[in-house]
Request: fold
Amino acid sequence: MTAYGKHNDAALLVLLSRGDDKAFTEIYNRYWDKMLFVAGIKCRDLGIAEEIVQDIFLDLWRRRSELSVTGELEAYLAVSVKYRVINAQAKMKRALRYRSEAIGNSPEQVNPTEQWLSFQELKVRLSELVNKLPEKCRITYQLSKEEGLSQKEIAFRMNVSEKSVEANLARAMKSLRLNLKRFLFVFFSFFL
Reply:
């Protein structure tokens, strides 16, 4: 675990406000996957979802000195994703409406059942990918992301060093991120 991995979000925000790029990197690594997952589900376009998440982090870095997060950082980022997705969807609907008007068709309606099925399929795929991880990576990931244990608690429970926990978690996240990106690309390409 890096020294920054031991900091809570509030401490990282203080460091970030002072221009600490390692604090920014730690925040990015903690929340990028979650934000991409939510944005991908909501806007159903991996490219747009990645753009939204990157824009949020870019904005976080640009506004670091005047940023005021009163609640939890995770909630702040979740709300940021929500509003950016809403804006992106409105922009896409306008573009679709203009395109439809130009060719004389009505815009397609979003089907809530399709969205729910897409989300369920994504959950199933994530579960399959987690189950395919090497045993120590899988257990580390599940204890961290599904049970919410800290790296120190995981190290104690698994009787390994915190460095091992950090390495296994990084390996698991890298593998999941890569495989989930591929899946989302294929999945959304098929349905769009």
Q: What stands out?
A: The helical segments are 9-17, 21-43, 46-62, 73-103, 112-132, 135-146, 151-158, 162-191. Residues 1-110 form a domain with the Rna Polymerase Sigma Factor; Chain: A fold (CATH 1.10.1740.10). The longest helix spans residues 73-103. The chain has two domains: 1-110, 111-192.
